[in-house]
What we know:
It is a single chain. A hairpin with a 6-residue loop joins strand 8 and strand 9. The protein has strands at residues 2-3, 6-7, 11-16, 25-30, 33-40, 43-48, 62-64, 67-69, 76-78, 95-96, 98-101, 104-108. The strands form four sheets. The chain has a four-stranded antiparallel β-sheet with strand order 4-5-6-10, with no helix packed on it. A three-stranded antiparallel β-sheet has the order 3-12-11, with no helix packed on it. It has a single domain, classed as Rieske [2Fe-2S] iron-sulphur domain (Rieske Iron-sulfur Protein, 3-layer Sandwich). It is mainly β. Helices cover 0% and strands 46% of the residues.
Amino acid sequence: MRSEGVFVSVWHRVASVSEIGPNETKRVRVGDELIALYNCDGDFYATDDTCSHAEASLSEGWLEDCEITCPLHGAIFDVTTGKPLCLPATKPIRTYPVRVEGDDIFIEV
């Protein structure tokens, strides 16, 4: 959202805590953005859902110890920072702030 040429971020409710078990992922959509939501043992994180290497859906990958493995070529990213941890990915993925209020999960976009 823009207001007089200034970018304004907005919090969006995207899921319930009860929808995403420990060490599970969920793909959510906020406007045109596809976002991967992760439950790392009760802490929630969000990144772009698209791998920076080959455009695969990260929410279809494997989550372990806050690291998501891309299902296409095996690139691994730290979901807390978006940083690639191994080849073939060399570019980070975008992360989004997450907050939990009761059973509701919000992402700032």
